## 1
Amino acid sequence: MDFSTALRTERLVAIIRGSDAEASFRTVMALAEAGLPLVEISLSGKDALGVIRRARAELGDAAWIGAGTVLTGGDARRAAEAGANLIVTPGLGAGLEESVRQGLATLAGVLTPSEVIAAEALGVSALKLFPASAGGPAYLQALRAPFPELPFVPVGGVDAAIAQAYFDAGAVAVGVGSPLVGDAADGGDLDELRKRAAEFRAVCAR
C-alpha cells in the first residue's frame, strides 16, 4: 500500500515526541498492535533515530515509520538512513526538498495558500496543516475552496472530539500527538494509551 492510500485508509498519523527512547519504542509498538500503523517519531525526541531503527527492524519493510520535525537536508538523510520511509516537516525548506529528491513520502507543513502552492509545486505527498488550531475546521474548509483536490492533514491541537469536524471539513486524515500518546513516550501507562487509541480508531472509522 502506498502512502497516499494508507493515509486515506487509516486517517490517523500518531505523533511521538518522547523524553525516554525505550518508552518511545514501546509506544510505537503498542500503537502498531492497537491497529494504528502510521507513526511519526519526532527528531526532537530522545534518540529518535535509534527509535526509528528499532521500529524498522521490528516492524519490517512494509511499515510506515515517519521521521518528524525534519528541518535540514542532513535531517532527511539521517532519517532515511535510520529507516524512515515518511518525512514530516513543520514547514517548507531544505529538509522537505531533500526528502522529495530522495523519493520519500512527504507530509509537508503548510498554513497559507502561498505555502500550499509552493509545497504542491515540489511534488509532496500530502499537506500537513500546521498549526491547525490557528484556524480550526472552519479555516480548513475555507482553504480547501481553492484547493479542493489536495490532501490536507490537520496537525496541532487535534483531539478525538474535534477530529470529526476536521473530517467533515474535508481532511483526509489527522495528525495527533499528546491527545493520543499522552505520557506514554515518557514512560507513562501503555494501557491508557491503548484506550485512547481505540477511541481515535472509532472516530476515524466513521
## 2
Amino acid sequence: MKNLIENTVEFVKEKLEGAEAGHDWFHIERVWKLSKKIAETEECNREVVELAALLHDIADPKFHNGDETIALKVSREFLESQNASEDVVEKVLFIIKNISFKNRGEVPKDLPIELKIVQDADRIDAIGAIGIGRTFNFGGFKNNLMYDPNIAPKLNMSKDEYKKSNGTTINHFYEKLLLLKDLMNTEKGKEIAEERHDFMMKFLDQFYKEWNVD
C-alpha cells in the first residue's frame, strides 16, 4: 500500500502543477489529511480512502469544459499502471464519480463509508477560513463580482444551472458553502464542519458591516 500511495502522491503533484490555486496539490493534500483524520474514527478501507482523496480532483470538470469522464479515465489508467486490483479501482472510481456537490441529486443511496469520508473531507476544505480563501480565489479566477446587493443568491439550482452559474462570490456562500455543514456524513465531519461554519457566519457579518460602512 505504501508504494502505491507514494506513487499516487507524486503522480498527482505532477499532474496538477500550475493548477488554479483552489484546486491544486495543496487542496488535495488537505483533503488527504482530513480523510485520514476522519478514517481513524470509522471502519473503512484505508487504501481506498487515501487513493480516492488523492485522485478526486485529478481532472476537475470545471476546468475541462464540464467533462466528467476525464478524471475517471486518467485515474483508471494510473491505478492499472500501478497494478491496483480491479476491486480497488472500481471503488476509487465510484467515489470520484459521486463525490461532487453538484451531483448530489444523482448519487445512489446506501453510499460506502469510504465515499462518505472523502466527501466530508472535500466539503470541509470548502468551508472555514480555507473555504473563504478558495471561494474568493476562484471568483477572481472567473472574474466574478465580489458582491452586488441587487443580485440575489440562486437557491435550489439544477446541476446544469449550477455548472453555468456566474453569480457573485458572496452569493456562493448561500448557494453552496453554508449548506455543507448539514450535508456531512460522519460524526467527525460534522464536528469539524460546525466550527468552520461558525467562522464563515462571523466573516459574513463582518463583510456586510464593512460593505455598508457601518
## 3
Amino acid sequence: MSESSNTNLEQAKQEGKYIRTIRSFVKREGRLTKGQAAAIEKCWPTMGLEHKNGMLDLSQVFGNNNDVVLEIGFGMGKSLVEMAKNAPHLNFIGIEVHRPGVGACLMDADEAGVTNLRVFEHDAVEVLADCLSDESLTTLQLFFPDPWHKKRHHKRRIVQTEFAEKLRSKLKIGGVFHMATDWENYAEHMLEVMQAAPGYKNQSETNDYVPRPDLRPLTKFEQRGHRLGHGVWDLMFERTK
C-alpha cells in the first residue's frame, strides 16, 4: 500500500468512516418493497442501532437488564421476530447487511408488536469489535450462514478459529454459541473448528450435534428440506472460561 493510500485510510478512520478489508459475506442488494421502506422509516428511530455510535450500554438500549441474545445474519428476520415475540423476558439484537432483510424484519416486528428487538445494518465483525462489551451476551446465534461450498472458498466461511475466539470474549461464562446449517460439509467444518477452539464445551451428549432446540423456530425452508430428505445440523458450544 502506498504512503498516499495509508494517509487516506487513516484520515477516513479519524473521520469515522469504516474501511472494510475482510468480509464474511457478499453484499447482494435487492430493491426495497414499499412496505420494507416504510418500516425502516417508521421503526429505525426506536429499533435501529448504528455502528458509528460505538459501544452500547445494553441496559439503556432496552430499558432493562434482561439477558441478551444476538443473531448474526438474520436474513429476512422471520425466525428472529418469532423468537423475540416468544421470549419477552429476553432482549434480542439482530445484525444483517442486506437492507431488504432489515426492512422485512422491522416490518414483521412492528406488526407483531415486538419491543425487545434491536437491529444493526452493518458488518457483524465490526459490530462485535466496536459496539458490544466483553461478557455482555447470553447467546450468540448463527443460523444458515453462507456455506461457501466450493473448496477453494472454504476460507471465506465465517466460522473460523479467530472468529470463534472473538465471539467467546463477548459471551458471558456459561453463554452459548448456537450454529445451524443445512450443509453437512459446513457442519463438519464448524464442529472441527469449535472442538479445537479454547474455552468452549460442546453441549452435545454425543460430542457432535444437538437436536434442534425448541427456541429455534422451524422455518418453511427447513420444513421443505425435511420433506425432501435434507438434513439440518445444530451445534451448541458453551463458554467455559
